[in-house]
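Q: Got a minute? One more chain.
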Amino acid sequence: SRIKGYVRYDDSWKLMIRSDFTTVCLTNEYSSSQNCIFCFKKVMHPVVVVMKNNRTEIQSNRGSFICVNPDCISVRSTMATHSRDTISAHAIALSGIDTLLIGATFPPFDPKSSQEKAESFIATAQHFSA
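A: Always. Here it is, folded:
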């Protein structure tokens, strides 16, 4: 990409400056906007059928997500559609608070997830809640 006259730096200096005044926690945003925060299954954009020039077209609504898992608590309570920005912000906050409290990442938000890591996370979370 073009820099357009600006010098490109890494983001480590931001952490140093901001950590002088408050606690800073870096989180990985991997898959945070692709998973439902209630059931951790994949979500999709809702589609709408519209008439345009005497033709029917399918358009997706990119501003929201819908969970299609029938076992999800949000689907059961008929509130399966959520705002894209809100669900992403909640998922990032959930990942960050988990990193602070337990010291591990939720398996759905871990880019290098494995069965071994998932079992370790469950064991650590159970010890934390006990």
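A: The chain has a mean pLDDT of 81.
Q: Perfect, thanks.
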